[in-house]
């Protein structure tokens, strides 16, 4: 909820795989029933990290770049509408994230866990043994406390940059010309300044460690934006917009799922941020031309872009999970498809009801 879903997946995946390293991998001679249970459980853990990061990111504006792009385009295309604030989006996004989280838990339990799973894992994940290892770690070191303090400060600064129209955040001190990226860079710079307390002259972060980060994910995002720009400059966006004009005069319960599915299909083949930059301008112009409230199309498009659960190409988080070797594309499709259906259904119910109260437009007209 508080950091980008890709960064969250990168941070949590080593934790998950560290637990899974205790478990036996399948031998060349084939797997017995116990090893099969362990293998399926390993899939559930990796898929759980990938999809939980994406679902949690829906709940707040800082959880994913899609929500930030939505806020920017909303204010640019519809300045007369009430702005989407941190609190207003969280009021809408958190209930949806909770529903999807339950759907994820149920799906993973049904597909990858059975009555014998606990028995198969008991020999490798003994609670008493894990508690002893935790106690051996000892208290938090100075470096750990400092990183936690920087991270906590980052969350506070994110949440308080803009509050409400009546209660301005600290962003007004800088004439609201700073963004979430500014805060992130500032707090990250502190990691290169604060000493780690272990060795003389060493800091919490240095460039040698920073170079080992997965910069290929950044390149992947950039490639997605390039593809989205190609959609616009080639005229493909106009063709797609004309193809959606059949929504003129359609009821809300048709507009919302169609827009969500349209965005949800595109996002499986390019990054969610790139999909958002592609479809939101399209939906903004479409909302004006067919005279429906912009929230119905733009929020549907933004949420649909985040339902990238089927293929590794849909999100950098998916690539992080896929690269562990524990899951296959077949596993992602089998788990992601029910989640995608649950997401579309939840949005179809929440947007015309809760969304109409939060974002306005109790009727569907602009």
UniProtKB/TrEMBL annotation:
Compartment list: Membrane
Coiled coil location: none
Membrane protein topology class: Multi-pass membrane protein
Domain of life: Eukaryota
Chief location bin: membrane
Alphabetical UniProt keywords: Membrane, Transmembrane, Transmembrane helix
Residue spans crossing the bilayer: 49-77, 89-113, 134-158, 178-194, 215-232, 252-271, 341-361
GO cellular component entries: plasma membrane
Entry GO MF terms: malate transmembrane transporter activity
Name the UniProt record assigns to this protein: Tonoplast dicarboxylate transporter
Natural source organism: Lolium multiflorum (Italian ryegrass)
């Amino acid at each position: 909820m508080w950091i980008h879903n890709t960064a969250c997946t990168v941070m949590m995946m080593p934790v998950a795989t560290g637990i899974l390293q205790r478990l036996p991998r399948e031998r060349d001679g084939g797997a017995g029933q116990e090893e099969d249970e362990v293998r399926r459980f390993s899939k559930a853990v990796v898929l759980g990290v990938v999809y939980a990061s994406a679902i949690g990111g829906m709940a707040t504006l800082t959880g994913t770049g899609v929500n930030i792009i939505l806020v920017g385009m909303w204010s640019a295309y519809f300045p007369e509408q009430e702005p989407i604030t941190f609190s207003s989006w969280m009021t809408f996004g958190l209930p949806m994230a909770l529903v999807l989280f339950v759907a994820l838990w149920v799906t993973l339990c049904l597909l990858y866990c059975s009555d014998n799973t606990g028995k198969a894992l008991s020999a490798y994940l003994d609670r008493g043994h894990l508690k002893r290892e935790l106690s051996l770690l000892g208290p938090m070191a100075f470096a750990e406390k400092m990183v936690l303090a920087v991270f906590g400060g980052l969350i506070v600064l994110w949440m308080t940059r803009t509050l409400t129209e009546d209660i301005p955040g600290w962003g007004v001190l800088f004439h609201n010309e700073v963004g979430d990226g500014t805060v992130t860079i500032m707090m990250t710079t502190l990691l290169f300044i604060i000493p780690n307390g272990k060795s003389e002259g060493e800091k919490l972060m240095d460039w040698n460690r920073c170079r080992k980060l997965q910069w290929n994910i950044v390149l992947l995002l950039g490639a997605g934006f390039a593809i989205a720009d190609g959609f616009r400059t080639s005229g493909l966006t106009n063709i797609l917009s004309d193809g959606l004009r059949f929504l003129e005069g359609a009821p809300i319960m048709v507009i919302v799922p169609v827009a969500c599915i349209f965005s949800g299909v595109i996002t499986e083949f390019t990054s969610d941020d790139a999909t958002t930059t592609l479809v939101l301008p399209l939906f903004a112009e479409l909302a004006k031309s067919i005279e429906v409230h912009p929230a119905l199309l733009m929020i549907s498009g933004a949420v649909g872009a985040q339902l990238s659960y089927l293929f590794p190409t849909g999100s950098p988080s998916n690539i992080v999970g896929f690269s562990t070797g524990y899951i296959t594309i077949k596993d992602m499709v089998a788990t992601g498809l029910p989640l995608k259906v649950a997401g579309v259904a939840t949005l179809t119910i929440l947007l015309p009801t809760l969304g109409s109260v939060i974002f306005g437009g109790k009727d569907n007209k602009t």
